[in-house]
## 1
Amino acid sequence: ERSRNLRGKVFDKTIKSTVEWAGLPTTQYSANMAKGGSGGGEATMRYSMHLFLEGKTPMGLYFTLATVGLIILNIVGFIMSTVQGFEPSFYESIEQLEDVSVMFFTVEYLLRFWSSADDAEHKMIRSNTRKLDINMTRLSWCTSFYAIVDICSIAPYYFEMFSLQFTKAACKGEGVIIDLPAVQFVRIFRLLRVMRLDGKYLEAFTVFDDIYREQKELLFKSGFVGAAVWVILSGANWWAERHNPAMEGKMDSIGQASFYTLCNLFGEFPLVNERGPAGKVIAVFTAAIACAVFGIFCGIFGGAFQDHASKKKEERAKQAAEAGDDGLKDANKESEPILVDGQMQSFVYKVVHGSNSLGWLYENVMLLLIVANCGGFVYGSQAHVAANKDVSKILDALEDVSVLVFTVDYVLRLYAAGCHTEYAGLGRYNYMTRFYPLVDLCAIAPFYLTSLTALPDINTSFIRALRLLRVLKAESYFKSGGFFTIVDDIVYENRDVLTVTGFCAVVLWIFFSSIMHLLEKDNAMMATPDGDHYYKSIPAAMWPTLLNLSGEVPLSDFTVAGRVVCGIMGIIAVGLFSIPVGIIGDGFADWADDQFGDGDDAEDDEDAPVVNRELASGGTGSVYNFVEGLNGAGDYYQTLLFYLVFATVFQQSVETLPDYKAAYGTELDTLERVCVAIFTFDYVMRFVTAHHDPAFKGKALPWMRYLFSFYSILDIVTIAPYFWTLKYPGGLVDQYDEALRMLRLLRLLKMDKYIPSITLIDDVFRNNAIVLTMTGFTASVFWLIFSTMLWMSEQANTMDPTDNGVTQGMRFKDVPTAMSYTLIHLSGDYPLLDYTL
């Protein structure tokens, strides 16, 4: 008995030392000892281990960080193991890392299984004794999300090991080399273990489940509609293209057609050139209507996620308000400048920030110089311009003057920054690390770098390209704030949601890249123009997979399994990938509402001029009532004009088909004469009755005002070429008859009289002029920067993805040429994907 008590005291002292080493407070130790009863020592050790593994102690936190590092190292090792060309020792090192990692994760799993009895989330109590049921608690833990992830991260290793042993035994000990790549990719599930680092990530993952529960009925209905549209269009495409030899059997069944139909519903048309007439009609219908119907499912999910993000943001703002804390972001806001009249520093501050008349002139001169610099750089990137010495001298002189002005501007801004108390004195060092001062510094740094003769290995193209950063200086002149600053605020406010969705996107990216590598690495149809393979390794597969996840399908000749995976990416992953973009867009819209609001819309509507549609009197008044549709006969006349607009568009479209033009040329010419005659009559009547039009009534020279109005010019442009060719057959206008005939399509704009659309768009532009100017400027900046980056990286690319003799280097030989292809990419389309690394 004394010996047993002595061992118990020693064991208890050991446990208490372990608890103190793990960082567990003594009160928790004592409380757990009391609950443990006679087995208090073991229970306390188990509880200490549970806290340690969950990272809730100082040493446990280090353990968690080390585990995360090992997981990331494992994922990188697995991805790089699929790349060929390294030394054998490299692959041996990866295998050794895998052996050590599996041993570590196995021990960790066993310890988590043992200590899960103290996991409050899975605790099971016996109904008869009201005591802890350890076995059932552990069983409950085994079915949890993280436990399944843990077992999936080590199971492939043992599966391969035991499969190898079984195969050797079956072959009587003979050496048999087997490869089980189908289970190797499961190792990437270890990446999900990173979420243990912070519990909010798992909490955010439950948002998907909440959205499903809240929107379940709507998701099922929209999913059913989308599936029905998919099946119907698959059958239609099969019917239209089943006998088309250009398809090479790709639509010989509804099952085969379903993949390409799914691509069409994503907005991608990989076989558009091979389609027949009926197939093209179906493709047009798909692009115009069906894509919107099919996108409802993703829209519901994305909208619900954004609503959740808005609620979380409101909760965070409410909590911050209750706590009297404006957030960390306020710490980065500048204080109001202290300006003193007559003081030089205050005067300089007003000038460089455009706060006085001289400052207004200063800002405009700087903007003009920035535009001139960017234009000069783009123009000078062309080979024939660079070879022209006279032009080069002018561009060099512009560069010298610009650097001088920008250097003086930087010094003045640094001097004037002292008007803010936090930047006074040595505080200017803090000012120099802010966004816009760094942009100002980058605007002049390339000039001085290229002037240093001690750096002979500098890539001058790269240094010259840095001059484009000067365009970012222009953003500082937006009085409402720069776009990048606004986006920074939006990202900060939605950091939790963006972190989770970004993490999910990375997991999905690696996951699907691994699967597509395993499924398509032996597919000969996936060869690149230079003889390589798009899916030869996981790193190589990550580029086309990223395009798939963004909704692009530049490659479509997959295996059956690859098509299934590509379809899953389109249905599920695209919605998740689009959430961050939607959140940023929604945040920018909220910012615009806060800045410019719509509170004055009601007043604007009341003050808007109301067009008087009363009947006109007099002889010409009756004519005006007729052409404006203000009486019974005029109503029929307006209907006739409505349909004649479509008739002229139909006639113009049919005339572009040689066979139909040859067969129905007489009828088409007759239709054209009738339409021109009626539109000419309409124009003359409107000109004669212009003084009755409320827009010109009571004003001087109403007929001249109408003559130069928008609809008058539109009418002249659409009918004048016809009469000109009658008067001067074979003349200049007749020589360009086909091009001038296209002007008749402008009659579609006359539809705005009946269905207001152009005027509504004009109102939208006017009401959102500042926001559109800001976003347009930012889009132009991105366009110019990415065009320059592609010019730098692809001008030596010799791959010819279209087999027509035009290499990637030709497409990106200079910045102006690169801008057209870059604009296509910025619009979300990637018809070319054979880029350098």
## 2
Amino acid sequence: LDMADAPIAGRCRQPIDECALFTYLARTAPGVVPRRATACFAEQFSHGQSNPTYKINLCDARRGVIASVVLRKKPPGTLLKSAHAIEREYEVMNALATTSVPTPKMVCLCEDASVLGEAFYVMSFVDGAIYTDPSLPKCGPNRRREIYRAMAQTLGALHAVSPVNVGLTSYGRAERYSARQVERWSAQYEASVGERVGVAPEESMRALISWLAANVPEQELSGRLVHGDFRLDNLVIKRGRGVDDAKVEVLAVLDWELSTVGAPYADVAFNCLPYYLPSAAVGDDLYPTLNPSALPDGIPNEREYVQWWSDASGIANPMTSTRAATWPFYVAFSLFRGASILAGVRARAVQGNASSANAHAMGKLVDVFAKRALAVIRGVDVPRGVQELSETRGEDLIGNTATGFEPSPKAAAMLLKLKHFMRAHVYKAEEALEAHAETSERWSVHSTVEELKAKAKLAGLWNLWLPMDSAALLKIQDTSGSSLFAGPGLTNLEYAHLAQEMGRSVWASEAFNCSAPDTGNMEVLLRYGSAAQQDKWLRPLLLGEIRSCFAMTEPAVASSDATNIESAIVREGSDYVLNGRKWWTSGACDPRCKLIIFMGKTARDDSGVPIHKQQSMVLCSMDAPGVRVVRPLTVFGYDDAPHGHAEVTFTNVRVGADESILLGEGRGFEIAQGRLGPGRLHHCMRLIGMGERSLELAASRATSRVAFGKPLASNGNVLQRLGQCRVTLDGARLLTLQAAHMLDKQGIKVARGAVAACKVAAPAAALSVIDAAIQIHGGMGVSQDTPLARLYAGARTLRLADGPDEVHLETIAKMEVRRSKL
């Protein structure tokens, strides 16, 4: 393999067992090993560092080389499950052998690690040239032009291949290609920054992630074979007879490690990166780049090159067609992917696996690549040089990359990480958790729950609900050394987006320590608890070691009016004595529940104390004498074990007055109102998440289910209903995001009406969508085979929990009446 601009095969940096390999090849591929061959020796290419690549020279008894093949193997050591998939490389190149896409001939695939220690495959040796510099300085203008034309035509030929026709139907998932790619590389970036690594995240990267997440093409052209790393230096080109030989032929496309089924525009945008990469200083060859304003003679401009690709592939030109608006997305994503890779290199360097000079260079380029991508997005003219871009102010490029109520860069990064975690862990756990909930052991905690919590902590997805001012409110220190007390410090608006994602699964919130009533109870302790109360109760709650419940609602009175509460809190010496009957005390059945926040009256109606100053809240241990869980209550037959909703009696329960009272006597109503503002918003966004999950299931069912000779998705009534679901959901979402924004900017007093409005709209929207999804699923929709029935039960309950619709509508109406009098 002759490297036109790079070192040829040489000394093996990672030696292999040549005797074992020769024996294997002679037995497995006798047609490739000449009869005169008696041994082989290996040379390692500088190309193929991810998967070590070797030139295997088959030689006779005199050590004379008779023939050569190429071997590509997995690197030694422990590998990520999906990394270094040489089996996929072999599969795709073998499948493409019958097409016009040039690939080396596959010889054999060996997955027996006993031969060389790792899996490997062998392919034919292709004798040709590889060019690493996209400016092709050693070629004349005619050869340059034809090399680029051949490269575009080769990529076009690949994208014209149908995966089905070459037996690659299951080679990858076409749906959500770019969305999944953004999630994947965002997660990789997040793993390469932060306190654990010792590198602060770049604001430019956070802004870029935010924009990419919000601008994934909705109707993406996908389902084509994509290479994933299609570059000039991954092509073997037939040697020319002279520097300006215009007869160019691509002999082979190499390095298929990232190939899959996906979006061809992403592939061609990555191929065009040299037109966009910021130029380094003279003599500093960090990566290949071109200067679009001073292209070498013969090299086409980007538009001409992409048109060549379009002609060869039969796919509309993404720079000039109706899809032109998406081209900046694909270019920006390609730059983002490069920046994420560089961040990983930097992280390894910081950890001692590379020189400090290399770490400094990589750190600089992460920010530079992100800023270059932001410049592409905004269409602004900025310096293309590394030094100039590194000195460009981020705010000049970031500008308004997000508008309205879209996630901030910080929230967008967290959201992508959360989505990845949900798909990787939570959804996969649903079946086991649902099955456990139907057994006689359901009141015990399934081991999967604690496993999910441990993984969420490691992923930095713990206590996401903690408000921005939590650090100032904490009166205790985190002695665990884990930073689990910190949380990401999000606003209500930022957290709303995360709550929506968690709402997609009824099991999700607990995994991140974000489930009710714990979040509300923790916020009460955070804002109103003393240092001693925080140390005893808030500390283990924040660490996820215990759970809690909130005892307010009573069966004997209409508890939507908190002044009706009859439970008594009576002072006797240094104690309070609690008596009362509560129900819908969510979480009280959980064996991990250790704390009750009990709301009752410290002043009687005839005491002369104002009606809203009669209530108090005290902290009570779940195992205090006199506390009895009478029974679990069901919601449409669901008992929500092991969490449960309990009826609980308190009979002469004694708690220390000073250590249990929150804020002071008569402050219970005030605490309740402060607790309910953010909590209601959390419920609302989780409801939107329930609706989104249900709508996805409904759309999928409508596409796959056939009735009366055609898919349900071809039925006008079904389409009308799905369309109305989207309108309904988006309306409720915007109401909730607006309320979160008002709560952040103006506080609960001003935002009270907005919170009430979304508390009415969100359950109604979710119920409407879930009901439509159930109807589209037919009998399956009300069974345990989908999450729809459980989602419906939860959504219906939330028309009552935290205040029934009627109370919130009355609040809204009174405000309208007052406005009319102004």
